[in-house]
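Issue: ligand-bound run for adenosine-5'-diphosphate - logging full I/O for the record.

Environment: standard queue, default settings, no custom constraints.

Inputs:
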Amino acid sequence: MSFDGLKQVIEKYWGFRTLRPLQEPAMRAVLDGRDSLVVLPTGGGKSLCYQAPAVLRGDTTVVVSPLIALMKDQVDGLHECQVPAIQIDSSQTAEERFAYEMDIRQGAIRLLFVSPERLVTPNFQALLRQIDVKNFAIDEAHCISHWGHDFRPEYRQLNQLKDWFPGAAVHAYTATATERVRQDICQQLRLENPEVLVGSFDRPNLAYRVTPRFELNAQVLEVLKRHPNEPGIIYCIRRKDVDELTADLKAQGIDARPYHAGMSPEDRKAAQDAFVQEHCNLIVATVAFGMGIDRSNIRFVLHTGMPKSLEHYQQETGRAGRDGLEAECVLLHSGSDFMLWKFLIEKSAEEGQADEQYVASAMQHLRDMQRYATGTVCRHRALVQYFGQKFPADTCLACDICLGDRETTPEATVLAQKILSCVARVKESFGINHVAQVLRGGAGEAIARHGHDQLSTYGLLKEHTLPVIQDWIRQLLSQGLLLQAGDEYPVLKLNAASWEAMKGKRDVKLFQPMQRRKEGAPAKSQAEQAAWEGVDRELFESLSVWRRQVAAQRGVAAFQIFSDATLRELARVRPSGLPGLRLVYGIGEVKLKEHGAALMQLIAEHCLRRDLSMDNAPGPVQGEKARSERPKTTQDRARAFELFRRGASIEQVAEQTEWTPKRVSGFLCDYIASARPASLAPWLPDDVVQRVTAAARRVGVERLKPIYVALGEQIPYDDIRLVLAHLGAGEQNPTG
Ligand code: ADP
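Outputs:
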């Protein structure tokens, strides 16, 4: 089965013209019948890796999934693309199940979704044997591992899958990062010589902003103002905070719905349904909200308090921007969040719900989380490194640190020296609070008892408030210029770096802690800047309303009809006819037939009413661009150019630099455009260059898609782009 055939299937049924990182090797593994483990972040496109090959193969792939809601989302989405798919679950009647089983026996089903509990039953296995199932896809595969955060005992029984179906290939998919979990998945599922593919955990389309919490309501409103009517989730630590914040927002006329485990199951379901079906755009929730929520166009996730681990933070923020478009993740934090979590962890230990090992690990997670919150390094880098990967660029240009959003403290080195010498004067035997009190010149009993009011550092920072001093101390901790030891009463300790700073051998950078960011709106990330370029917002809103109506009629979630990326592209290009519509990202043959006429009418009427131009040149497909690109730094560019000058191929550069081939290809395009090498021989076969050149002469160089089509959809977009760069046709849109 050819890979080109697979690309045609994807284009026809899904309307996608490019693949995301690692989708190609993941799909090849499925086509080759080789076991695989695919680790991609949320929104990375794991499902397409088993869905598209199932369509091309024409047999039945069994997908194991832990939640009915997750199965339903996928089945709905597949039906919208007219791919035959069903789920078998306990909510169905005997008649329904009988009818489904008939379809399965007749081989009419491409994707069959089941829970692990059902898969282990002998009757169901007998049914699968009748149709000789050759492929199993295990979704959310980390549920099989004790080390994962979502262990499910039912998943454990899948370790017999290889006995039940010898000869069938098993493919595992997860977004969970740790090596331990990965190994466990391979072992438990007994994968044989699996293709293991681990994607980057970075989410370039997310802009991370972390700010101390000083005035909760005002800070929340500021974020909401940046996202008028846009879908978002506000996470609070406690149920009580959820109720209070929801009430405050409602009092201001903002339609926010609460969600937490203290509500009745009916109320919770109503809130969740309203959010998923786009009747409401704002949910205020505890961490209880989220599992099984696949809404792809969440534009912001706001944490009003610090989560208890970076794993939780990654998972919760990961719900933003699954469609690849820009999204913002704001974290408001305070030292009291740490104390609250510490209290809760200790309480669970006292109540016998947690053993010593658990407490130690929970405290470590909490400290890591706090280090991130008070940290002064790039947020993308900090997250990616925490999950054990290298960060590929010098700057992300998509976080408060890299965008220069926070004001630095003047004379930070001197300030740090004062703090560090106070830690030395109290003989490294006291915690953050006490040291801050001494520096502030406080009058507490403990200070007098230890004679700390006699120290030379007493009152050295009396012009600053206590929380400010505490925050600076935390910043020093997060930079490794101070240490904390002891769990019960952690005391501040000095290390070699502290002494270097005290002796003036090291410059220190500190942020103004309790201040707002610099005046005005925060600087925008690349993805945020590009987000609405050329898009007619009013038309986008009308298209969203139309999408919601169609979704309601069909009983599916709105994003299953079209993603926001497609709607924005429609509102930007405003095609006047079916051929123009067909060129829009996310519109394949199937959806064109289904919705083309309605879209054309809606767009034409709007353009007429507002006197807007139609058939505009498409911009870059924002979601896919943000997903695959990192800012090209001067250093990286110079490095790439030098390698190309020496004739290195894309693969060689990718291997040497550990950049993705897509990024390397972007650099190569720039290199070709600026250096104009005599020939493209090191990178492309001669006949490809000639064919693309000829096609470009015939259909023009303004857009890639017509060239792609003229060449029978055989030559990848990246190759076309290289030839056009050589012809001097300038920057091209990645997917036409
Ligand atoms: P995951 O399961 O990894 O969290 P999904 O499979 O739900 O991610 O994919 C996230 C979104 O990306 C979906 O809307 C999907 O249709 C879309 N998508 C997947 N692959 C591509 C692609 N190659 N091009 C464009 N969009 C894609």
